[in-house]
Amino acid sequence: MREQFRHELKDIHAEVVGILDSVTESARQGVTALITGDEDLAVQVIGGDHALDDRCTAVEERVIETIATQSPVARDLRLLQSLAYMAIRLERMADLSTNIAKAAKRTAGRRGPQTLYDLIQAQGNLVYRVLDATREALDKRDLELARKLPELDEPIDHLYKQFFRELARLSNEEDIEWASQMVLASRYLERIADNAVDIGERIAYLITGERETHGESAQTQARK
After folding, report:
1. What's the domain count of the chain?
2. How far apart are CA 48 and CA 54, in angstroms?
3. For 43-90, how does the pLDDT look when each residue is reduced to its tens digit (9 = 90+)?
4. Tens digit of each residue's pLDDT (9 = 90 or more) over 175-186
5. Enclosing domain of residue 47
6. pTM score > 0.85 for this model?
């Protein structure tokens, strides 16, 4: 019975890692669709959102069922609660990726200043780095890497602010309408990274059993 329980824990954990991989790919495709104006790719990302939502919901249901039938305690209970929390965050991240694809669909066929495309691409690259680090921290239960995520997130916030400086330079009304979709996409990327950082906090809690804020994590690192 306990062997079956251990297998279920590993299986749920592996599924959460797999969902994170799918969310990362969805974000990549959404950004690619936005930059290249690929409406077909945008539609593909939008169409895949329901499947990702269903996978996240299934994780939550499995966690509830496992807790109800196995009565886990201590570390096992903390693991299950954390995986359910991560599934909720991943569902939000999938929705944000879909929103980027919707922005890509709205702007398909129109081109704006290259500067904003470059900013989106740069921001996207930084977000992928955060997501890859989150995946590694979760898969390997790497405390140091989980605590490093807020640091990796900072440049993404800076690029988002830079969007508004670039937006202020636009004068053509059509450009501004197009740029508003780009700004929204930049905001969605920022929020994806923020959710990944929140998952990183939960990974740290899973490993240590203690809750840390971003600031506390940084202070802990500084004391080392």
Report:
1. 1
2. 10
3. 999 999 999 999 999 999 999 999 999 999 999 999 999 999 999 999
4. 777 888 988 999
5. 2-223
6. yes
Q: How many helices (H) and strands (E) does the chain have?
A: 8, 0
Going along 10-163, which residue ranges are E strands? Answer: none
- Taking the C-alpha atoms of residue 35 and residue 217, their distance in angstroms, rounded to an integer, is 35
Sign of the C-alpha dihedral, residues 17, 220, 194, 112?
A: negative
- What is the Cβ-side half-sphere exposure of residue 144, based on CA atoms within 13 angstroms? 3
- Alpha carbon distance 12, 66 (integer Å): 10
For residue 78 the two structure tokens come to 């903390």
What SS3 class is residue 146? Answer: helix
Distance (Å, whole) CA 69 – CA 93: 30
Q: How far is CA 130 from CA 68, 153, 200, in A?
A: 34, 7, 10
CATH number at residue 203: 1.20.58.220
* Angle formed at CA 21 by CA 138 and CA 34, multiple of 5 degrees: 130
Tokens 């900013």 — which residue?
119
Q: Strand (E) positions, the chain?
A: none
How far is it, in rounded angstroms, from Cα 152 to Cα 148?
7
Q: Assess contact for 91 and 52: CB atoms under 8 A.
A: yes
Distance of CA 18 to CAs 21, 88, 204, Å? 5, 14, 19
